[in-house]
Fold each of these.
Amino acid sequence: MKRSTILSTLLGALALAVPQVEAQNVAVKTNLIYDALANINLGIEGKLAPRWTIDVNGNFNDWTFSGGKRWKHWMAQPEIRYWFCEAMHGNFIGLELHGGQYNIGKVNTNFDFLGTNFKNLKDTRYQGWYAGAGITYGHAWMLAKHWNIEAELGIGWSYTRFDRYPCASCGSKIEDNAVHNYFGLTKAALNLVYIF
């Protein structure tokens, strides 16, 4: 399925899920952390009830970096949020799903985290897909009538299937259709939000 079709489907589902489109019910956002990492991203959040919203974020990176580095991916991340005070202000918790595809290699990392060996990214390339779920916690601060800043962290689980190659541009596989389960950070956001 084409990436544009996936993104259009997600945005259409959000539009159908939001019962009313009027002031203070819909917001668009960009994750400043992803922006700093050269990931194109966009989020849309819609109010479902006084304390409930649905948030859909997507990001995409198809840039080619020097030295044979690859960090190509696309991801969609829908989330249901419960706000402790009122929608789009203050503290919230959420349940999120995430999924996408990746092509990552020749990235110099030197750490292991909860059973995932990120050191392998230095000498090998991974190409595959993933899907998972997590829980989130965040806070939104009002900057002005239509502007918020929002911080959020999420932890969860991801299931992935991948092919592994010996280097960023080599074609012979080391592993075929391998499986890995990841548990850890699944979301980190510092969003600049515009509320209609």
Amino acid sequence: MKKAYVFPGQGSQFPGMAKDLYENNPKAKEMLERANEVLGFRITDIMFEGTPEDLKATKVTQPAVFLHSVVLAACYENFTPDMVAGHSLGEFSALAAAGAIEFEDALKLVAVRASAMQKCCEAVPGTMAAIIGLPNETVEQICADVDGLVVAANYNSDGQVVISGAKEAVEAACVKAKEAGAKRALPLAVSGAFHSPLMEPARVELAQAIEQTAFKAPKCPVYQNVTAQAETDPQVIKENLLKQLTSPVRWTQSVKAMVADGAEYFMEIGPGTVLQGLVKRTAGAAVTIEGLTTL
């Protein structure tokens, strides 16, 4: 039975995350203390004792979710994936867990990514909305027909696509989506147009850091957001990561590709259960799905 391990993105954080790992596993404690040093502040204090509002700050959220996931994978004795993938930020967790990027290097990239995205959101405001109950092609056509910048940003599962772009364009697309028969068109509580061309300033800043980071062949294929295909070549992995911030997250396509390549068992490693739901809606009864939030 082939196993696919998947890693969640921003939004899965919760107060007290990874605290039990820190308190009960010496290796986890060592890795988390190293993270405090690398980041230059005690992120563990916020992860363990912070409020939901504290954890919403982008410079905290992204490293916190990354750390919970990667530390958990490193301490999991049965970490033997046949393939890995991560949703948006989770792709960095997947690459680190699979050995394509060293832990500290990946953490530094995540910190740069979080900072760059925060600055981009402040300088170039945008928003996102979830469109539920329409085919992908219909959502793409609606985005193309609307005046202003709006694109399909996250293909989360069959019938659920998140759109991203300028506020007025996203609102107009939501109206058209409802007219086209969407069950729901839900504005998301975000401050930026993630995975759209409006993230270009953040992409440029992150690209400089990625270019200076060493990549090596992962222990198993990584299904990347940009292509939804199995990748093992370090240079290809790097090139895809360079495009990730301004390209759509092809999660539905990634799950289907992993199933087509023999995945029968999916485990979500990290905080939350979001990916378990998305995999279930995409692969259904064809696979076994579990989650790992602690050891």
